[in-house]
Amino acid sequence: MSAPNGSTSGLYSKALFTGLWRENPTFRLMIGMCPPLAVTTAVKPALTMGLSVIFVLVCSNLVVSLMRNLLKPHLRIIMFTVTIATFVTICDLFLKAYQPQMSEILGAYVPLIIVNCIIIFRAEACASKSGPLVSILDGVGMGTGFTLALCALSAVRELLATGHVFDIQVMPKAFVPWLALQMPVGAFVTLGLMLGLINVLTRKREVATEDPEATVAPSAPAAPVPATT
Amino acid sequence: MDRFVALLMGFLSVVLVNNFVFTKFLGTCPYLGVSGRMDRAFGMGLAVTFVTALSGTLTWMVDAWVLTPLHLEITRYICYIVIIAGAVQLVEMYVRKFFPSLYEAFGIFLPLISTNCVILGICLFLDVWGTNSLLEAVVISTGTGIGFTVAICIMAAIREELALADVPEALQGAPITLITAGLLTLAFMGFAGMIK
Fold first, then answer.
1. Could you read off the pLDDT of B105-124 as tens digits, one per residue?
2. Complex ipTM more than 0.90, yes or no
3. Is A164 strand, coil or helix?
């Protein structure tokens, strides 16, 4: 998909594509776990949430990258959070105005994007060290990876809990809905099993390719959560 | 007396019935990340309890006495996050001075409490639930922190046992922790009928 034909374009495509799978925030890094668990009862709110996160992530990455030379070490975190809070306010007001129904469903989880580890983690690990273009691409990649994870999780939960996805009936009429999947327990167990499945798949691939890099958890100065402790 | 009972009910409700970790998925990051060992989990719980109590109360006061009268609700999130970051800074300095060993053990997690969802969560939910007295705000935000401590300690105790268990290879680490968390959620649902 990405053929790096020069060091710069290689850098750009790397920034764009690492977030999709190799460092997927939800499935590989296990950061920012609240939304994947909380808003994935159906695909629509999950998608709205994902798009909001992409918007906030791209904007905050851009701003942080532009002011990276002004950052003071001890004031860094607070500068990041205030930047993020500004964009989240914009996003929240936008949703309230144009998507009132979604805003109602997502409720407090929209403002909670402020404390989503992904955004502050990318600000720290990428945007505060790289130029604006790389930061934007990184934001798009990471945000899309996050959105895909949300959609995958919510599709499974909505399908099994109600029998339809995106208001389209998928399961036969005789299907008995698994209501438990709409409750909190469904979120935890589905995500756990999905991670297990991904472990199986990646392990197979690692054995096949003997790629030592893939097993090493990406290290960053402020990786909020070590993947497995 | 009625007021006391109402406060007690509110307190029990956020600790058991509306436990933030189990019903609202807030604070899942430290819940899965720091719950490897009991002592660290308990320390983390205490630190979070202190910060939630402090910042829940402070944000309620700022919201009710400054932002609402001045019609500055639009800056609410920014104010909240600044207050929380200040409170976390305070706790960090305190722990570093008086409990250096605990400070070492926390490492990066302590400054990251400021990005812990439980704390911003309680500030936002105090608003959603329409808390209308200072005492109520104090009790509920303290209760939320205690609820988090209860959740993370139960999880840590289970995970200490889980380390000895024979878990299928693919589920080792995070997946089994999530599934355990799911089962715990199921157990805590039993409290749902206790308080309306």
1. 766 667 767 777 888 888 88
2. no
3. strand
